[in-house]
Structures are given as C-alpha cells and as structure tokens.
Amino acid sequence: MRRTPIPRAFRLTLIPAVLLALLIPSPVARAEEPMLAVRLLDGGDALYAVSEIDRVVFEGDSLLVQRSGASESYALAAIERIEFLWGFSSIDDPDDAAHLVKAFHLFQNRPNPFTPVTKIGFELAQAGRVELAIYSVDGRLIRTLINEDRQAGSHEAIWDGCDPEGKKVASGVYFYKLAAPGIAESRRMILLP
Questions:
Q1: Tell me: the pLDDT tens digits for 85-98?
Q2: C-alpha–C-alpha distance, residues 52 and 49, integer Å
Q3: Which CATH architecture has domain 29-88?
Q4: φ and ψ at residue 99, rounded to 5 degrees
Q5: Nearest to 121 by CA among 42, 183, 185
Q6: Which positions ≥6 away from 65 have C-beta within 8 Å?
Q7: Chain Cα centroid distance, residue 40
Q8: Cβ proximity of 152 and 124 under 8 Å
Q9: How many CB atoms lie within 10 A of CB 146?
Q10: According to CATH, what is the number of the domain 92-191?
Q11: What's the whole-number average pLDDT of the chain?
C-alpha cells in the first residue's frame, strides 16, 4: 500500500491545532443523563451520552454509533458487552463502593462458544424484579429466559438455543441482557452449529 506524504506546511499547522485541542477540555457528560457504554475486549471503553446519539445500528459484523458530525464503528468480535448506565455514583471512599461492586454481577455464559446448551449465572445483592433476555445482533428479542421477582443471591438460567416456540435459532453471535432495579448489563455469546 502506497502512502501519500503530508505536505510540510500542513503538518506545521496540524501539530499546534492538535495540541490546542488536547488542552481545551472536552465536554463532560452530565451525571444525571443516561449513557451508553461499549466495553471492548482489549480493555478499552467508549462512553456516549444517550441524548447525543442519533442512531445505534448493527451493520454486518459491526456496531455503528452515529452522533451529529461523527460515527464510530466497532467490530462485534471486539465487544465484550454493551451497557446502558442510568446514573453515576459519587462515592469517594473505596470501602463505601465495595457493596456496589458486589451488588450486581452478570457472569459470562458457560460454555462459550456453546452448542446446544449454555448456563448464564448472575448475582443480586437485593431482591427485586429481574429480566434476563436473549437478543440477536440486530437487536431482535429472541427469547426471555427470566421475567420475575428474584431473591438476593446467586442465580442461574439455562438457554437451549431455541426461540419461545422451541425452534433452534441459527448459529452466530447473540447478546444476553440482565435488567434489575437501577441497572442493566449485557454480554456476548456464540452459538455454534
């Protein structure tokens, strides 16, 4: 692949512009507004204020987030999970935050990839209404595994790779989302043929 050199005059104006952009603080998302978090397998995260998003869509093997004047694309294979954050904590003391870490946890399904059955485990710190649902990469609801009140503690659900009518779904990438009072978390899984 042949590279086209950047003209020297352009480089000399580009460097100060980039440095200036780094010094100007970027707008910080307000804590009271909902956020979309794309958690990547390499440890990187992308955080978007929901009010600034024009469109979120799955296109082929990518997730596309479109905002006014910009769009970002993420390979589905690179996404660990997608979360909607409805509020941020202002806890300063790590000891005070310990209960939040233990409050809610959605585990990676076992096995993953899987065929024909997988187990999805999660923990709740308090009792409440819980919904655990399976979604296709295009966002369609495939099946709701749990939609009921659950006690605090460890729980597990089994998905057999079927829709509500008992028909096997196609092999591929699926997301499972757990929603409980005040929080929602999702993870990716792969169903093999």
A1: 765 555 455 544 44
A2: 5
A3: Roll (2.30)
A4: -65, -30
A5: 185
A6: 36, 38, 46, 48, 53, 55, 56, 71, 72, 73, 74
A7: 8
A8: yes
A9: 16
A10: 2.60.40.4070
A11: 78
Reported as a pLDDT band with limits 50, 70 and 90, residue 146 is very high
How many Cβ atoms are within 10 Å of 138's Cβ, its own excluded? Answer: 8
Sequence ranges of the chain with CATH classification 2.30.30: 29-88
Q: What is the DSSP string of the chain?
A: -PPPPPPHHHHHHHHHHHHHHHHSPPPPPPTTS-EEEEEETTS-EEEEEGGGEEEEEEETTEEEEEETTEEEEEEGGGEEEEEEE--------HHHHHHHHHHEEEPPPBSSSBSS-EEEEEEESS-EEEEEEEEETTS-EEEEEEEEEE-SEEEEEEE-SB-TTSPBPPSEEEEEEEEETTEEEEEEEEE--
pLDDT digits (tens, 9 = 90+) for 1-13: 555 555 555 445 5
Residue for token pair 């710190």: 125
Q: 137 pLDDT exceeds 60?
A: yes
Q: Where in the chain is the domain with CATH 2.60.40.4070?
A: 92-191
Q: What is the pLDDT of residues 32-64, one digit of tens each?
A: 567 778 888 888 888 888 778 888 777 778 888
> Nearest CA to 69 among 90, 88, 52, 46?
52
Q: CA–CA separation, 6 vs 15, rounded Å?
A: 12
